[in-house]
Each structure stands twice: as structure tokens, then as C-alpha cells.
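Rotation project, supervised by the postdoc (A.L.). Task for the rotation student: set up a whole-complex structure prediction and record inputs and outputs verbatim in this book. Inputs entered:
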Amino acid sequence: MKTLAELKALKERASKDLALREQTDAQRIVVGMGTCGIAAGAREVMLSILDELGKRNMSKVTVGQTGCVGLCAQEPIIDVMVPGQGRVTYTKVDEQRARRIIAEHVVNGHVCLDWALNVKDEPRT
Amino acid sequence: MRELSLHVLDLAQNAVEAGATALEVRISEDRGTDTLTITVTDNGRGMSAELAACATDAFTTTRTTRRVGLGLPFLAAAAEACGGGVTVESSPGAGTTIRAKFQLSHIDRAPLGDMAGTIAVILAANPGLRLTYVQSRDALVLRSEFDGCLTPAEALAVRERLAGWPAEQPGGVGDEDACGTEGAQGAC
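Outputs recorded:
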């Protein structure tokens, strides 16, 4: 490495790599917050997810909300997206289940098959 | 919905789905006029006059998966059962204001509930949403502004802070009474 331009190019490449890695590391949890989800207790589920993530200091995991997906009888519904593992939809989630899903799936990578409605290979964008 | 704060969460989700980047939630308890007013204002895409006029009708919806939308009708039913009502002000491109009015001391009025939890959930799930939250009880006003994303721990800290307000309000016709009524029913 001899010039400033070379150094800049190196920096750019490294920061791109880093951004890519951070992106693929990002796990995402989406809670169904339509009228049906809210009435079924989605807010308490979301609060317990936030509590669990806060306790474990997992600030990299992003939490989002979405509207009704048409399965109102199965609410509260949460989607867990782990890069490389695709999207898993959990139904009839309550506070205890949410905490166990964080511990078993998000932290340890084991899908809780008993409550999973659908396991998709590719994450939905 | 068991709590009015759940309706607020529902309205916030509607706003986010309408593309809002700024949201204002206002809860006003006025014991002098015996009213509780909930106002949610967003800067989303808004509605045409025709759509706004029938927004509280359960058979009005913009979604395509089914022909009913129950969020606003539920709120309207709750408000009308308490001697109040819901008004919808909206114009395309200018955003929407939903105002729900309740008789504060009405026996059928649901408790406000965990408003702090609702605010924390809105903040945590919508990074980039500017949120203004104004809660007032008579002359007492709490105004909070939030900007940008929060980590889960930060969102819960906001909840803790908001939940403590107002600290001591002797002789209130607020939620304490509503919760008391609920407890009494449970005991029967």
C-alpha cells in the first residue's frame, strides 16, 4: 500500500464487508399487530420479547410489527427470521411462549416445532 | 378490546400502514367536563372524503384479503357506548386525525390501561417514527417527544418512566376507579 487512494479503497472494501456481515447477522422478530393481534394480546407478547431481549442485551435483534395476515384465530402470531434459516411463523404465542422462543430459537437456533405453523427456507422480504 | 390503550395501539398501526413518519397521540382527561378524549394524528397518505365518511363502518376497508375491517368500528362502538363518539378528519396527502370522545365517569368506559406499554411498543417496533405523546389530566400535562430508534432496553425504560405518571392524584375519577369496578365484578 503506497498511496492515500489505495488506503481509501481498502477502507471502503472493509466497511462494505462489515456492513454485509452485520446485515446477515441481523435476526428479526415481527409481531402481528392488526386489530385481531392486539385484541389477542400482541402488546403483552411484544413487551415480553423486548424484556427478554433487553435482559440478554441483544440489541442487534430488530423487532417490528405488521398488520393482520388473515389468520386472526391463530393470533398472537410472531415471525422469527434468522439469516440462513429462513422464516418461522409461531401461532398462539403468549408471554411464556415468547420468552421460550427467544431462548430456544433466537439464542440457541433450535426452532420450537410444537408451536411453529410454517417453516420457510427463504426469508420473505 | 379490554383497554382503551389497545385501541390507541391499533390506530398507531393504521397510521404506520398509511405511511406515516410522524405520529401524535393525545390523551386528555377532563374531570370538569367529565370527558376523556383520545386523539391520534398522523402524517400518512390520508383518505378521500368519501372513505373518511364511512371509515367507522365495519364493511369499509382498503385491504384486499377480506371485506371487513374492525379496528375503527370497535373504537366507535366503545365510544358510543359511553355517551361519546368518533370523528375522522382526513384529506389525501395531509394525514388523518382520529378523535374518540368518552364520558369519563361512564360505567361502561373501559380503563385506559397500559398506555405506557402501548407507547413503548410503538417506539420499539417503528424505528424512524417521530412520536409525540401528550397525556393530560385536568391542568396537569405530560408531554414527551421521541425521535429515532430505541433498543429494547431503552423502550422499556420509556415505559417505566411514563407508567409513573401522574404520581399521586387524590380523589381521581380516573383508571383507579375503573379498575376497582372491574375487580368488584370479578369478585362476584
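Student's summary: The radius of gyration of chain B is 17 Å.
Supervisor addendum: Confidence is low (pLDDT under 50) at residues 169-188 of chain B.
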